[in-house]
Input
Amino acid sequence: MADASRRNAAFSSLPARVASGVFYGALLGGVVLWGGELGLAVLLSALGALAGWELHRMTRRGRRLLAEFAGITAIVLMPLSVALLGLSGLLAVVSALTVAAFSWHVYATGMRLADTAVVVLGALVIGFSLAHLVAVRALDNGVVLTLTVLVSVWAGDVLAYFVGSLIGSHKLAPRISPNKSWEGFAAGMVGTLAVWFALPLVAETGLSHRWLGVIAVGIALAGLVGDLFESRIKREAGVKDSGSLMPGHGGMLDRIDSLLLVSIVAYHLLVMAGAA
Output
């Protein structure tokens, strides 16, 4: 009975989920194609700022608005720094955030370690991660590689959602995200692998089939960890969704959670595979 209710709830929100997902995908894909690294960085900075605001709202204990402003500013600057200055620019922003975190924790006596940690970790989880997607866009064949990363994440999410909703019975992480199942994860892995193994049919990137498989598996695992990480935050905060900005999905952080760690893993695996 509980499984039937879960399936009904999952499919009742499907029209809104599809509509908002298509809009988000078209916007992000269009910017990857025609916006260059700077256009992508501007969009990711905006999405990251929204996600950062949701994160701080969920985890806020008292009013720490000045520190939150610094964290969200760092999130905005990180993708932009990669577009304008490369990874050295990203290092500069992370360094400035570190100095700021030390300083405000020393002089702002109302700040607790947990407050400072949320600001810094939030900036790294969101801004630092999304900045790596800009770095993927800057690689040789960056357009097709970035689109492949995005499409593989979306394909994995869609298959995991449908298969998990229909036949998922073996819980993957019941204490963190009760609706996730091993059946859904396996379907998502298949979808991610299918997209990467189809890449040579679309474009010549020079990546071997072995590396295509490694990248796909890395992305699938990173997407799962990113999703569970956000689910853990929401459970600790006692909320169902990070917000209500994306109909059928929840908040912006709910929408981009599986892309966060993926961006870092995808960039470094692509560089290791010779795509730089």
